[in-house]
């Protein structure tokens, strides 16, 4: 009877990671952005991928998921699979395959996934080796043309209201807005993202008269602190 062992079958674990520099160093592969904005009407856009280690090789696999986390063919990535050897750089080309089926009055959210699978050298093949395939997952926003509000103006358009003891945030803009460093009467609240033309309840619930927050811009940087009243 055949038996499996770590020596004969290396274990590959797939982990999701944030794009913090430390996480990239552990993965050995980094991305040139923490989010992608895809303008409508543009045939394609690109994302740089780079190896952070001089000698290691990685098999790079990329794909796109919808907001629910299901793999889709709305965008085609080339190359979808390639080998990156040594401290090299490559470019992922992301091609629009939506065929004008997406909303034209608001952004649509996708997730771009880049998995780095490390190679094994001959010495490791003779040892009990545990390999980690690290997946970097970043947001990709498909942005229609001629939206009614400029993206830099959107964070100031949010409004806040009391819903019982909870705080409801309303986003009347056509953009996905990620809120960070949220404080209600100096009590910290959990970071969140509110979809275009929708609202959500901030957690945990708290009674407050004012709220402050930052948002994340198109370049992945935090905007200045915004303070608003809670109606």
pLDDT < 50 stretches = 1-26
Mean pLDDT: 84
Helix/strand/pairing class, anyone? mainly beta
Largest sheet: 6 strands, mixed
The helicity comes to under 10%
Proportion of beta-strand residues: over 45%
Can you describe what's shown?
- This is Fimbria/pilus periplasmic chaperone.
- Its main location: periplasm.
- By secondary structure, this protein is mainly β.
- It is 5% helix and 49% strand.
- The protein contains two helices and 18 strands.
- The chain has helices at 21-27, 122-125; strands spanning 11-17, 29-31, 35-39, 44-51, 57-66, 75-78, 81-85, 89-96, 108-118, 130-143, 159-163, 166-171, 177-184, 187-188, 192-194, 198-202, 210-215, 226-229.
- Strands 1, 3, 5, 7, 9 and 10 form a six-stranded mixed β-sheet that branches. Strands 13, 14, 15, 17 and 18 form a five-stranded antiparallel β-sheet that branches. Strands 2-4-8-6 form a four-stranded antiparallel β-sheet.
- The protein is globular.
Secondary structure layout:
Elements: E1 11-17, H1 21-27, E2 29-31, E3 35-39, E4 44-51, E5 57-66, E6 75-78, E7 81-85, E8 89-96, E9 108-118, H2 122-125, E10 130-143, E11 159-163, E12 166-171, E13 177-184, E14 187-188, E15 192-194, E16 198-202, E17 210-215, E18 226-229
Parallel strand pairs: 1-10, 3-10
Antiparallel strand pairs: 2-4, 4-8, 5-7, 5-9, 6-8, 9-10, 11-12, 12-16, 13-14, 13-15, 13-17, 17-18
InterPro entries: Ig-like_fold, PapD-like_sf, Periplasmic_pilus_chap, Pili_assmbl_chap_C_dom_sf, Pili_assmbl_chaperone_bac, Pili_assmbl_chaperone_C, Pili_assmbl_chaperone_CS, Pili_assmbl_chaperone_N
Keywords: Chaperone, Fimbrium biogenesis, Periplasm, Signal
Signal peptide: 1-27
């Amino acid at each position: 009877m055949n038996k499996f062992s770590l020596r004969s079958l290396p274990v590959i674990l797939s982990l999701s990671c944030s794009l913090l520099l430390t996480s990239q160093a552990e993965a050995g592969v980094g991305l040139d952005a923490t989010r992608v904005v895809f303008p409508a009407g543009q045939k394609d856009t690109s994302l740089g991928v780079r190896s952070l280690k001089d000698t290691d090789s990685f098999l790079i696999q990329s794909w796109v998921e919808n907001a629910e986390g299901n793999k889709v063919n709305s965008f085609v990535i080339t190359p979808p699979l390639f080998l990156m050897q040594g401290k090299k750089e490559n470019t992922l080309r992301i091609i629009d395959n939506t065929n004008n089926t997406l909303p034209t009055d608001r952004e649509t959210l996708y997730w771009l996934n880049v998995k780095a699978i490390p190679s094994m050298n001959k010495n490791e093949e003779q040892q009990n080796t545990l390999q980690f395939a690290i997946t970097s997952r970043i947001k990709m926003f498909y942005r229609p043309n001629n939206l009614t509000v400029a993206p830099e103006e959107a964070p100031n358009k949010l409004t806040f209201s009391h819903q019982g003891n909870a705080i409801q945030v309303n986003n009347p803009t056509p953009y996905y807005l990620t809120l960070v460093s949220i404080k209600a009467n100096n009590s910290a609240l959990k970071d969140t993202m509110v979809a275009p033309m929708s609202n959500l309840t901030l957690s945990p619930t708290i009674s407050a008269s004012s709220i402050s927050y930052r948002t994340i811009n198109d370049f992945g940087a935090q905007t200045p602190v915004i303070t608003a009243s809670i109606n």
